[in-house]
Amino acid sequence: MRKFLISTVCCATLHGAVAHARPPGNGAPDIKSAESELSYRSYITSNKRIKCLYGYAANKTGDHAAAIQIFDDCIRRWNDVFSMIGLAQMYETGIGIRQDAAQSTALMRRAAQLDDGSSYPSLARYHFGVALAEGYGIEKNIAEARRWLHKAADEGVNEAAAYLDHLDHLDHQDRAAP
User: Which first-to-last residue range defines the signal peptide (predicted)?
Assistant: First the structure.
């Protein structure tokens, strides 16, 4: 559903930009102008918050440098949770940027501590809880992991509830071992 929504928003935005491309003197559409207005790079310095979605699209289509700049700017300007998660995932995978588990987890923590009215902070709480449980980019802390995972599960993140079940199973195995 989220991918469909993002795709729909991006397509509607792109359609509007093409429809409003200024025609040159002969009345024909100025394709070169429309292309430059539609490039991901044109959103790097944009003052419009919609650009944060373009960071995701830029990353998924391989323009990682533009994605990083867009995400960084959205985080700086609006403390945008969606952008924190996107950039954290880039640091986690090392695609388009140097892999850095600590930076990835720090961004997830920052996003997890926010509440912007969307479901993205809940998703960040889940990812931060998993990082704590596995010691990914941060010292392993099962009790703290459980706290974040419970919060995410209470907010409807099914994966968080499943991961808590996984931790309970591991806990049970540890107690049963001789």
Answer: 1-21
> Residue for token digits 């459980």?
146
| pLDDT for res 16 | 38
Domain boundary among 38, 63, 78: 78
Write out the residue range of the structural domain in which residue 174 sits. 79-178
Asked if residue 111 lies in contact with residue 120, where contact means CB atoms within 8 angstroms, the answer is yes
Task: Name the domain boundary from 43, 78, 113.
Answer: 78
The Cα 146–Cα 38 span in angstroms is 43
Q: For residue 176, is pLDDT > 90?
A: no
Calculated CA dihedral for residues 56, 114, 123, 162, nearest 10 degrees? 170
- Residues 84, 62 share a domain: no
Cβ atoms within 10 Å, residue 29: 13
Query: What's the number of domains the chain is made of?
Result: 2
Cα Rg, the chain, nearest whole Å: 20
